[in-house]
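Homework help board

Subject: predicted structure for assignment chain

Our instructor gave us this sequence and asked us to write out the predicted structure in token form, then describe one feature. I got the tokens but I'm not sure how to describe them. Can anyone check?
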Amino acid sequence: MFGGLWRGLHGIGGGRGAPALPASTLDPQAADARLDLLMVGEEVEHPRRRRAIPWLTMAGFLFLTSNSGIAIYRSGGDPLSVLFVVFSYVDLILLFVMLRWYERAPADSSRREWIKIAVWSLTTLLTVAFAYRVAAIMPLPMAVLVWAMTFVTLKGIYHAFLAHPESSTTSAPQNIIGESAV
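My token output:
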């Protein structure tokens, strides 16, 4: 009784409310071909997903917006606090937009390299702004530690993403012990 309902809800077997899956979906050889495409790293994307904004992204954006509004309200009119909140908000929005552009840019394009530099710059600005705010309320030894951690983090990000080109990494998928999976 419930098996037909379960298959119908999940689109298996053509139950009520959902169409049957195409035969190629259930074909093991077709599944292996799709898996091979994923292993090689080619994008398999639904055409309507390119323009759609996922609900989780929208929820995060609304959460960020409401938190920023509350922080501005609670700042008590302090212009530096308001400036920090507005700067952080705009920086995060630009960072998310740039990351989305980076994901969609062709792999070997110069545009992708420029976007990578912009992402690193936005990340650097945001990290320095947060370090400044945190170090301002710390005793001197802790403030020095905060700034040291900030510079080490920024240097690590720089070397991981900008100093070493993507072509120096292996393009074949790797398994857990580092051997090529193909």
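Reply (TA_rk): Your tokens look well-formed. For the description, you could write something like this. The radius of gyration is 24 Å. That's the kind of observation they're looking for.
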